[in-house]
Amino acid sequence: MATLNACVKDAPSRHIDIDGGTPEHVWQACGKLEALPAVELCELAPARSRAVILAPHPDDETLGCGGLIGSLAALGRQVSVVAVSDGEGSHPQESKLHARLPEMRARESLSALRHLGLGDAAIQHVCIPDGAVTAYLPELKKWLRAYLHPTDILFAPWRLDGHPDHEAAGHAANEMEQEIGCKLVEVPIWTWHWARPDDSRLPWGRARSLHLTPSAERSKRLAMQCYRSQIAEDEGRMPVLPANVLAHFVRPYEVFFL
Fold it and tell me: What integer pLDDT is reported at residue 13 of this predicted model?
């Protein structure tokens, strides 16, 4: 979920204002989330399929799909996380963390995935520059064509998620569904921050809710805490993921667009 200073130039109405955004209590009060049709785990990812989680930045897999990943891992199911970038753009160059970010964020991802029940081999790195997924779309699509199978279930950010890297990854995933035949499930992530419950652009008709067990909830919360580079202050700068943003991801369910 990094690179907040990358402007969403093609979608100014969805520009990510990290200081503002829609508070989680507004989502909880609207009644729409509680009223969403439920989806079962076996419907999202059938037993013989591989769940492939496409994460533009390290932490997107945990924020959007942490409960899903933990639930699948608990059943011994095959899960693969594809890190499109190493998240090296989340902090400005003047930050003392800047040069260490690729190593730090990779380490944080491994720790988070272990909390979710996955081993180190579950993560694949595409190594596309953070903030430049749109420019490197041909490379990403080439990588995905070589990696994906028709029986995979591909979980990727929603194509209107509001962050350029997220949207580019979502469009690439949509093309893979058309070309390869793998099923695409879209994951809203930044959507919860910029959108409001009455926003007509949200595809409510495709929205489904996966309810999490207490164990899956707990594992996801522990996994989120692994991303210290994102949730802690940096030399007086506010966290990349402040508490008002993190609040969207500690719900007892996760929402997917089918």
Answer: 45
Report pLDDT digits (tens) over 156-211. Answer: 999 999 999 999 999 999 999 999 999 999 999 999 999 999 999 999 999 999 99
CA 200/CA 112 separation, integer angstroms: 34
Q: What are phi and psi of 100, to 5 degrees?
A: -95, -5
Looking at the DSSP bridge assignments, the partners of residue 208 are: 256
Give the separation between CA 88 and CA 6, rounded to whole angstroms. 13
What single-letter DSSP state applies at residue 22? -
Segment holding 124, helix H or strand E: strand 123-125
User: What distance lies between CA 111 and its chain's CA centroid?
Assistant: 16
Q: Is 62 helix (H, G, I), strand (E, B) or coil?
A: helix
- Name the CA dihedral angle for 66, 181, 152, 87, rounded to a multiple of 10 degrees: -50
The topology (CATH level 3) of 50-87+100-257 is Rossmann fold (3.40.50)
Instruction: Provide the pLDDT for residue 1.
Output: 58
The end-to-end CA distance of the chain, in Å, is: 22
Beta bridge partners of 107: none
| CA pair distance 2, 109, nearest whole angstrom | 13
Pairing of strands 123-125, 207-211: unpaired
